[in-house]
Design goal:
Layout lengths: L17 E8 L5 E8 L1 H11 L2 H22 L10 H12 L17 H21 L5 H35 L1 H11 L6 H28 L1 H9 L2 H13 L3 H44 L1
Antiparallel strand pairs: 1-2
Helix pairs in contact: 2-4, 3-5, 4-5, 5-6, 6-7, 7-9, 7-10
The protein binds zinc ion.
The site of zinc ion (ZN) has 7 residues, from loops.
């Protein structure tokens, strides 16, 4: 028989398993302890979070939002009504990733956060409302089951979007210089998931300093810049990756340096011309004067 962790729902093996009685309030109001099995680390995390008042409060607040949104925006029940026990249990089922959980659904890491469920409801609202308004259901429970099945199907998609948004946030936080440089010069923000993925991989492979150098050289090279402007998103990053893989940076650097040298040469020439004309003028002026003399 496979045993799963109460907190993370991961598989447990006996060497890394602790059993802890968790108090739960029963239907009759009495408190009973249930023996739950945890990973060692998961028990610590669970105990820490369940004794943290802020964690508990924020989860309760999120649950209230889920409850309200479902009631008023999805099912559009009268304001004074309460959700049935069936609905509450099904909504909590989404939280812990089971059909109709009996006991606690808070604090645990498994399943989906109430925030994710709320976003999923907002995302699915239009489609759900349209369907339930135009279809006849056998009874109320069938209607609820339909809503839950749509939400259940969309949860992963939204959870993935949230995970990505967080990751992009963290990534641009820790590589702010690079993200800013990219945004300013290539005129594109890392909002697309594939661009973010490519970006992340590049940072992992080459580090921020090397990438900043590569971006800088591309910006200084007219032809490379024209090319990069003509392509989009991941292609831009792939181009940078190719430059790095083919070790093209020294070449770009030489080009940039020789361009600088040429500029300097032109500058020098211009200087010389001005110097010599002033010389000539001075000389000629003198000669002219001499000639007059
Ligand atoms: Zn665990």
């Amino acid at each position: 028989m496979t045993i799963r962790c109460y907190h993370c729902n991961g598989l447990l093996d006996e060497n890394d398993m602790v059993i802890k009685p968790i108090p739960l309030i029963c239907k009759n109001g009495k408190v009973r302890n249930y023996k739950r099995k945890f990973h060692m680390k998961c028990l610590q995390e669970y105990m820490k979070n369940s004794s943290n008042r802020e964690v508990r409060k924020s989860e309760n607040d999120d649950w209230s939002k889920v409850y309200e949104y479902y009631k008023s925006e999805i099912m559009r029940y009268p304001e004074t009504s309460n959700l049935s026990t069936y609905e509450v249990r099904r909504l909590n089922g989404l939280r812990v990733g089971s059909y109709m959980p009996n006991g606690n659904t808070r604090i645990v890491k498994k399943g989906y956060s109430y925030k994710t469920i709320l976003l999923t409801m907002q995302f699915s609202k239009a489609a759900i409302v349209k369907y339930i308004d135009t279809h006849k259901f056998h009874d109320g429970e069938h209607k609820i089951n339909y809503v839950m099945s749509v939400l259940g199907k969309n949860l992963d998609f939204i959870a993935e979007k949230m995970r990505l948004a967080q990751e992009i946030g963290e990534m641009t936080q820790s590589n702010r210089k690079l993200a800013e440089y990219y945004k300013n010069n290539f005129d594109e923000y890392i909002k697309d998931s594939s661009v973010a993925g490519a970006f992340r991989m590049l940072i992992k492979e080459h580090g921020e300093d090397k990438l900043l150098e590569a971006f800088g050289l591309v910006v200084r090279d007219g032809r490379a810049m024209d090319y990069i402007k003509s392509i989009e998103g991941t292609h831009r990053l792939n181009y940078i990756r190719k430059l790095l893989a083919e070790d093209k940076l020294p070449e770009l650097k030489r080009k940039a340096d020789s361009h600088k040298k040429q500029l300097r040469a032109v500058n020098d020439m211009e200087n010389e011309i001005t110097v010599s004309t002033t010389k000539y003028k001075r000389k000629g002026g003198k000669r002219h004067l001499n000639w007059l003399d």
